[in-house]
Amino acid sequence: MADWQVPSGVGGDGNLVRIRPSDIGAKSGKCAQRLALKVRPGVSRVDDGPVSRRTSKTSALSPLYAVLDLIEFDQVSLEEALSKWRHGAKRRPHPGLIQWTEHAVRGYLAAAAESVSLAPVSRQWARQCTDLEDGVPFVHEETVTGRRYEGDGIRELRIPRIKSVDRRTGDPAEGELAETALAAAVLADARPVLSSHWKPQQPLTLGRFTPAVHLRVVEIGCVDASRNVLFEGTPEEAYHRYVRAADARVRAVRSGGDYHPGQECGTCELVDVCPAVPSRPGFLGVDFPPAQRRSWSMTTARNYRTCPAQAYLRDLFLPRTEAADNTAATVRGQAVHKAIEDLHSRRPIRACASTDAPTTPERWQAGRWEVSGIQARLGTQMVGDHALVCPLHRLPGDAEVYPERSLVVHDPEADVVVVAKTDLLYRRTDSWYVRETKTTRSLDASDPLVTYPQLALALLLAHEGAVPGTTEGGTTGCRVELERLTGSGPVLTELDGDDGELLAQARRIVTDLATPWHADEEYVARPGKHCGTCPVSQWCPDRAGKSAE
Fold first, then answer.
1. Measured CA distances, 108 to 7, 117, 428 (Å)
2. Range scoring the smallest mean pLDDT among 113-122, 204-213, 372-381
3. 3-class DSSP state for residue 372?
4. In terms of Cα–Cα distance, which of 455, 364, 362, 441 is closest to 407?
5. Which residue from 509, 479, 476 is spatially nearest to 494, judged by alpha carbons?
6. How are beta strands 431-439 and 478-486 bridged, if at all?
7. pLDDT digits (tens, 9 = 90+) for 317-365
């Protein structure tokens, strides 16, 4: 850990480390430097200009915790607790969040009723040690998040999850095992946190240790009241599991590493001083100040244009009805996309060939997307046709090729982190290329920038120097391509990033999409036919057709 250096733009005590299970889990993220900063509460942004706004931290589970606190510690009824939460917030919660929270609390309580009756614990649990590493003193703390219970020598952590935890098949991933191991070890050494949560930058003050005989870590799926025991055993067993499954990941997170811009940048409080994220004032073209920092992508724009409430509820990652918005053509497009992504991920790299197409054209699968019949045959043709325009032809085996690479820029005037996930970013000699691949049964005469606004965003990112090989104000060294795989063959179009009219059109498209979303604070539902294919409509009280149910 002594090798980790506080990056430029931030300051404070880097020798206080506080790690939670989610920091070492499968969903902790790819940016090692962000994680290293996140687990150091004593490090913060050095204000050499306007104070950075806080990131927007709306969570689908935060209301559940608030309601459970009222039930478990204030001894109020379920209905009274829900009412207090709804009417006690500074701003009335979104109707969709209200409906989800009512469902989630009932699901949690139903699952918890199957557990042994234990007393709820109001104070957080943590363990702490002070040590030397390479001669440098540091304070290392580990804590857990979830609902805490104990009694009769038993100490139990219940972790609410949004989705179902009914896991009857498959083994847990390495990251999940590490999370569980860390949580169990904290329970073994748990001491109550006495510190004020308003002073997180200081070492925790912990109360007296009371040993437990039996430990249990349980996850609860709030959507369906499912329950899954992750760990059950003695403190000694918890220590052994920590050494085996968590210790190495804890050390890796503590040590930091490379910057890796991506979706996580939207929740990073230090993104405005990150050397890997370009700052481009006015990128989105909005001219009014926000209340909180948020992230925006073309997926956000597309969902918001369909229905503001849908965009809001999707961003909460609420349980979805997957089949609702997965038409046969959509599934086929996803399968083709995944098949090509897998081909481009081969190392050493090599160009796609027609023989790489699926060998069972009547039924095949790529990732989680399975197709059959006419969609499978059309998809097979599209994967084979891609070989005719594959960008990897005549590239060396060690060429720089990045499937599904995210490009990120921060607009400080809007205080929005813009994230664009490209289908493929690759380099040919001295030029970089952004390739977007789309599937369609037939071509039409529509404007590609209007039909595929992500192309407009890619052009702006190249122009603003957010793509490797580019500089702000010019697209030298970067090109944007559109590959369309159709029923009659592939069509490749290159967009001229130096065309002033094209850039002006791209800017208008991006600004027109971002402006209403940026100004919106209510996310009111817009009921219509799309409610029938909305994957989060079950949480929307205003969805079309609800009154007829």
1. 41, 14, 53
2. 113-122
3. strand
4. 455
5. 479
6. parallel
7. 999 987 666 789 999 999 999 999 999 999 999 999 999 999 999 999 9
CA distance readout (Å), 195 to 38, 69, 402: 19, 19, 45
State how far the Cα of 86 lies from the Cα of 314, in Å rounded to an integer: 21
The helix or strand, by DSSP H or E, that contains position 188, with its residue range, turns out to be: helix 174-189
3-state SS assignment for residue 500: helix
Judged by average pLDDT, the poorest of 88-92, 230-234, 391-395 is 88-92
pLDDT tens sequence across 450-500: 999 999 999 999 888 887 666 665 545 578 999 999 999 999 999 988 889
- Quick check: bond before 403 cis, omega within 30? no
The residue with greater pLDDT, 475 or 415, is: 415
- The residues with which 264 forms a beta bridge, in sequence order, are none
Assess contact for 286 and 413: CB atoms under 8 A: yes
Q: Is 158 helix (H, G, I), strand (E, B) or coil?
A: strand
Which letter, b or e, does each residue of 186-195 get, where b requires 16 or more Cβ atoms within 10 Å of its Cβ? bbbbbbbbee
- DSSP E strand boundaries for 73-213: 119-121, 125-133, 136-143, 147-151, 154-161, 191-192
- For residues 222-253, one letter each, b for 16 or more C-beta atoms within 10 angstroms of the residue's C-beta and e for the rest, the string is bbbbbbbebbeeebeebeebbeebbeebbeeb
Place of tokens 């956000």: 300
pTM listed for this prediction: 0.91
Q: In the 3-class helix/strand/coil scheme, how is 402-438 assigned residue by residue?
A: EECCEEEEEECCCCEEEEEECCEEEEECCEEEEEEEE
Contact, 463 vs 474, CB < 8 A?
A: yes
The answer to whether the beta carbons of residues 518 and 304 sit under 8 Å apart is: no
Three-state DSSP class for residue 17: strand
The pair of three-digit structure tokens given for residue 183, joined into one six-digit string? 């949580």
